[in-house]
Amino acid sequence: MNAPVDAASEPYGLDRRRVVQVIAVRGADEGWRGSGYQVTWNLVLTAAHVVCTATTVQVRFLTAGRGTREVYGKPVWTNPASDIALIRLADDSIAGGPAAAEVPRVRFARIEQPMDCEALGFPRFRLRVDAASPDRGANATYRDSHHARGDTTPLSNHREGTLEITLKSSPEYDPERGRSPWEGMSGAPLWSDGYVIGVITRHHRSDGLGTLAASPVDGWYEHLAPDEINELSSLIGLPTHRDQLERVPRSSLLSDGAPELRESAGRLASRVAAQWRKEERRRNVHDPFPLPVRFRNTGTRLVDHWAKIRDASPGADPGPLALDGSLDQIVTVYRSIPSRRLVVLGAAGSGKTILTLRFVLDWLGDRTPADPVPVIFSLGSWDPTAVSLRDWMCHQLVRDYGLAAPAAHGGNLAAALVDTGWILPVLDGFDEIASGLRGAALKELDRTTTPLLLTSRPEEYAEAVQKQRPLPKAAIVELDDLTLKDIAVYLPLTSSPGADGGLHGTVWEPVLDELHRQRRGPGAENVATALTTPLMVAMARTIYSDASGRDPEELLNTSRFATPEALQKHLLAAFTPVAYEPAPADSGTGRRRRRRWDPGRAQHWLGYLAAHLDQLGRSQAGVPARDLAWWQLGTMMRRSSRMLVIGFLAALALGVTTAVGNVPADLVATSHGLEFALVRGLVVGLLHGLVNGLLFGFVYGSASRGAAEPARVRVQLFGRTRGMRSRFLPRFRLGFTYGVLAALVILFLDRVVVASMGLADGLDGGLAGALVFVPGIGLGVGLVLGLMAWLEVPLDIRSGVSSSEVLSQDRRNVALYLLVWAVVFGVGAGFANGLTGTGPVAGPVWGLLIGLAFGIEAAFGGGLAYGLSFTAWGQWVALARIWLPLTGKLPWRLIAFLDDACERDVLRQTGAVYQFRHAQLQDHLTQVFLAGRDQRPADSEPVT
C-alpha cells in the first residue's frame, strides 16, 4: 500500500492523512461503521464497541486526492469498560508503507478546565451519493469526512465519566428516526491543544444534536489493570501513570511574548537540536539501540514536600508522584511534575549526560512555538559566590550560542530570553561544583522556582541538601544500574555476527556464558560489577567490538584485574589508544578520510589538555574545569612566560617593519650610503621593537588575569546602537594616553640615543616634527581604538558559534584592526608631513611615501601587537599555535585535532567549547600525564 502518512506529516496535532473510516463486518451484518486514527505505523485507535465481535475490519484512509485507500486489519486490543480498541493493519497491507519514524507518536493529555476541542470522523449524516457511479441502476453512496469543532469541559457527565462536547455546528434535524445522525463518529480521537484527550464514543439523543460524549484519556486508568496499561504504553506510548499525562491548557507565560523573542527562541531551538543530534550520531547511541537507562523515585529524605511539588491546595497532602520510567519517557515524566523541577541522581557514568541529551532532543522534537527551549549548562564552571545563576547562564548563552545582540527593551538577547522564561535550564553536573561552593549553589537555586532539570551524583547532592534543605518544589529520581540482561542483549549486537550470522559465536559469547553461570567465578563477578554503567559498557564496546583483534575474554583474568576498579581503570586506559588506532577506512579512497594521528602523541596531547583543565579549574574553584576553550589554552603557562612571548612577538612585529622601512627612506631622502641606512635601520628597529615589546608585554601582564575571551562582535558601518557609540570616548582617552607615552619614549630614543651613536639622518623635522609627532601618535592610537569601539556591533544568534567559526570571526576582527591602524596612521602621517614640509624631500609624493611607511609600521607594530595582546585570536596564535606546538605540548593543527577527537568520541563539542566525553576519562588522562612527567616544566607552574 502507498503510505497514508509520509515524511512530511505534521509532527504535532491532528493530521488528516492519519484519519480513517472503520467498517467492521460481523457475520451477515452489512457492517458497523466508525472512525479511527493511525497512532503507529501499523495500529489504529478506535472505539471498542465499533469492532467488538467483528470478523473482518476494513480501514479506509483519505488520500491526497479526493478518494480513499482501503486496507484490512483485525482488532488486537480492546477494553469495553473504557470503550477503546486497537486495530492492527495486516502485514501485506502495510508492506512498503511508512516506517515507524515517519508516523510521529500521538501525545495524550487530560483537561483541567473548559477547552476548545476538535475531531475528524465519518458520521452518518455525511452520507453522500457518488455522482460518478458507473451503475445507473443504483447510485453508490459514501460517507464524507466531518471536522467537528467545539468546547469540552471536565465538569459535565461526572457520573458517567465522559467528556461532554458542545459542538459549534451540527445537523439541523434528525434525518432518520431511531438512528443517530452521528453514527460512525465513534472512535474518532478528541484533540485539544495538539493532544488526544479522549475518544468519541456516544451520542445521547436527549442532549440534542449539538452534543457528543467522549471517553477521557485520564479515565482509562480507572478501567485498565496495571498490565493492560503497560501493554498500551508499549503499543501506543500512553504514559504508565495518570499523573504523567500532560495537563491542558499548558501553563505558559510565553505564548503572548514579544514576537522577536519567540523568533529568536525558535532559531535557538534549531541550533540546540542540530548540536545534540550531531553529538548523538557521534556516540552511536542508536547503534544497535540506546542502552536501557532506567530511573525510579528516590528516598524521601532529599525531596521537598509533595504538596509543594504538585502545587496542591493548602492543607492537602496528595502524596508522591509515580516517576519511574526509562530513557524514552523522561520528557513525559518531567511534564507530569506540576512544578517542572526535577533532580536526576546517578553514579559516575550511570547515564546522566545521555539522559539530558535525550531530554533535550525529545523535548525539541515535540516542541510547540510557545514552549521554552531546553539548553544544557555544565555547572562545573559556575562560581555561585561570584555570579548569580541568571548572569552565569546569560554568559554561557552568549559564549555558546552568540546571543549578544541587543534586545528591544535593553540588555542582550540572552538576558531577555532568560528573564522571560524562554530558556529551560538543564543543569548538568551539580557534583562538579567545588565542594565548598555547593552550599552556595544550592542557596542560589533555592531563591528561584523556575523550571529546571538538575543532574548530580547522589553523595554530593545529599551532602549539600542535608546541610540546608531540599531544593524547593523539586522531585527527584535516581538512575538504576544496568542489568546482566541489558548487556547480554546489547554487546553481541555491537560486534561482528557469528558464523551463522546470528548472536552465537560472537567475541562476547565466552564472557556472557561466564556471567550467566549460576556460580560465577571471581573474574565474572568483576565484569558484572564493572559493566553496570553505560559509560563502562560503551568503553568495552569501543575496545572489544569496534576494534579488531581484541578478545574480551581477557576481562575475566583476575591476575590482571583483581577488582572491578582495576577493570574499570583498564577500560579507561585502553580507550584512547584504541580510539586512535588506524581503521581500514582511514587509508581508503572514500569521500571522507579520517586524519591519522600517532596514538602515543595523541594520548600525550590529550593528557596535556586534561592537565590544563585540571590546573585551570583548581586555580579558580578547587575542582578540575570541564570546558576546554581554545582561547584559554595558553593559561597553563605562568604569566611571566606569557608576557615574554607576547612582548617578543610585539617587538618583532614593530622592529622588523621599522628596520625595513628606514632603509629606503634614508637611501632616498639623505645622502648617506647603504651601510649607514642598514646600520641605522637595525638600531632603530631594535630600539622601537624593544619599546613596543615592553609596552605591550607590560600592558598584557597587568591587564590580563587569564585568557581574553573571543569578542562577540563584528564591524558594521550602519545600525550601531547608542550603547556602542558611548564607548568611543573612553577608548579614545585610553589610546591617547598610551600613545603619547610611547611617542615620548620613541622621541627620546631617536633624538638622544640614536643621535649619540652618530646615526641621526636629519629627517626628524626638528622642533616642528617633535610637536607634531607626540600628539599625532596619541591622536592616532586614540582614534583607532575609538573607531573600532564605534564600528563594533554584537553578533546575533544567526552567527556561528562553533570553535572554528568563533575563531574565524576573531581573526577577521584582528585583520580589520590592522587595516584601521594602517589607514589612520598612513593618512595622518602623510597629512602631517604635508603640513610641516620638513626634510630635504617634500611634496605630495614624499608625503605619500611617508604615509605608506607609517601605515605599514602601524598595522604591524600597533595593530598586530594589539591583536596579540588583547584579542583571543592573537593570544591563541602566540601561545597555542606557536609556542606550545614548538615545545611539543600540542599539535600544530590543533583545531583539526580537537574536531577529530570529537569524531572519535574522545571529546564532545558544546557551543564554542569542547569537553571530554566524561569526567572520568578526563581525570584518568590527567593522572597519566602528570605521572609521566619526570619533573614539572617551568612554563607550567600555577597561574598567578
TrEMBL record:
Region listing for Disordered, in residue ranges: 136-165
Tagged with keyword Transmembrane helix: yes
UniProt KW keywords: Membrane, Transmembrane, Transmembrane helix
Record-linked Gene3D superfamilies: P-loop containing nucleotide triphosphate hydrolases, Trypsin-like serine proteases
InterPro entries: NACHT_NTPase, P-loop_NTPase, Peptidase_S1_PA, Peptidase_S1_PA_chymotrypsin
Pfam families per record: NACHT, Trypsin_2
Transmembrane segments: 643-665, 677-700, 732-749, 769-793, 814-833, 845-866
Source superkingdom: Bacteria
Residues in NACHT domain copies: 340-458
Name recorded for this polypeptide: NACHT domain-containing protein
